[in-house]
From TrEMBL:
NCBIfam families: sdhC_b558_fam. It is found in: Membrane. The keyword Membrane applies. It comes from Sorangium cellulosum. Its main location: membrane. One of its GO terms (molecular function) is metal ion binding. The lineage of its organism: Bacteria, Pseudomonadati, Myxococcota, Polyangia, Polyangiales. Keywords: Heme, Iron, Membrane, Metal-binding, Transmembrane, Transmembrane helix. GO terms for cellular component: membrane. This is Succinate dehydrogenase.
C-alpha cells in the first residue's frame, strides 16, 4: 500500500503536467496568438492617418461587454500562458551544446523569445492598456503618444522604436514557432514531411506578421512606412509626419508641469 501511494501521486502529477502543457499550447495558439494578429492589424491602420486609427480604436472601445472580453479572452489566457511559460523556460534543459539539431535550437529560441516577449508585452500593456484602464490616457491619445514615443531619441538613437522592433521580433518568432509546436503536440502534423511543410508555412506567416508589425513601428518613428510598402494615408490626413517632429515628440513625451 505504501508503494502504491507514491506511484498514484506521481501519475496524478504527470497527468496534471500534461494537461497544463496542453492548455499552455492551446492558449498560445488561439486567444493569445489571435489577439497578436488582431492587434498588429488594428495598429497598422495608423498608416492611413490618425483619423482611421482613431476610428479603429473607437470601434474596439465601443464593443459591448468589452471589459469582460478583454479580461476573459486576453488578460487571463495571456497571464496563464506567460506565467506557465516562464516556469517551463526556467525548468527547461536546453541541449544545443550536445545536439545541435535545428529543433533543439528552436526549442532554446522558443524559451528565450518567450521570456523576451513576456517582458515586451508587459511593457506595452503598462504603457497603453493599463493607462487607459487607470483613466490616465484616453483612446484618442494613443496615436500622438505612439508617434512621440517611437520618434524620440537618446543620443540620436530611437531607443523605444528599437525596443519595439526587437520585442515584435521575439513575439512573432515565439508565436510562429509555437504554432509548429502546437500542431506537433496535438497530432496535426505526424509525418516528417508534414512537419517540414508546417515549418516552412509558419516561417512565412511569421515573416509576414513581423513585417506588418515592424512597418507600423517604422511609420510611428519616421512618419513614413518601410521602403517598398505603399503609403496608405489619404490626402490631407493627419499623419505621424505632422505630429512627431523632434521638437513635438520631445514635448509630448515630457511630463506635464503643474
Amino acid at each position: 500500500m505504501s508503494e502504491a501511494t507514491p506511484a498514484r501521486s506521481l501519475s496524478a502529477e504527470s497527468r496534471r503536467s500534461f494537461l497544463l502543457r496542453k492548455l499552455h499550447s492551446l492558449t498560445g495558439a488561439l486567444p493569445v496568438g489571435g489577439f497578436l494578429l488582431f492587434h498588429f492589424w488594428t495598429n497598422a491602420k495608423a498608416l492611413q492617418g490618425q483619423e482611421r486609427f482613431d476610428e479603429a480604436v473607437a470601434e474596439i472601445s465601443h464593443m459591448p461587454y468589452l471589459p469582460a472580453l478583454e479580461i476573459g479572452l486576453v488578460v487571463l489566457p495571456l497571464a496563464f500562458h506567460a506565467v506557465y511559460g516562464v516556469k517551463l523556460a526556467l525548468e527547461g534543459r536546453p541541449n544545443v551544446g550536445r545536439y545541435t539539431y535545428s529543433r533543439n535550437w528552436m526549442y532554446t529560441m522558443q524559451r528565450v523569445t518567450g521570456l523576451l516577449a513576456f517582458a515586451f508585452i508587459g511593457l506595452h500593456l503598462w504603457q497603453y492598456w493599463a493607462q487607459k484602464w487607470l483613466g490616465r490616457m484616453a483612446p484618442e491619445e494613443f496615436y500622438p503618444r505612439l508617434c512621440a514615443s517611437m520618434s524620440s531619441t537618446v543620443g540620436g538613437v530611437p531607443v523605444m522604436a528599437l525596443i519595439y522592433i526587437f520585442g515584435i521580433a521575439a513575439s512573432v518568432f515565439h508565436f510562429a514557432n509555437g504554432l509548429w509546436g502546437f500542431c506537433f503536440s496535438w497530432g496535426v502534423t505526424v509525418s516528417r514531411r508534414a512537419q517540414r511543410t508546417a515549418a516552412v508555412v509558419f516561417g512565412l506567416v511569421g515573416l509576414a506578421v513581423f513585417v506588418l508589425g515592424a512597418n507600423t513601428v517604422v511609420y510611428f518613428a519616421t512618419g513614413a512606412p518601410l521602403p517598398g510598402t505603399p503609403s496608405q494615408a489619404a490626402e490631407g490626413a493627419r499623419t505621424c509626419a505632422d505630429i512627431a517632429s523632434p521638437t513635438v515628440a520631445r514635448g509630448l513625451a515630457a511630463p506635464a508641469s503643474h
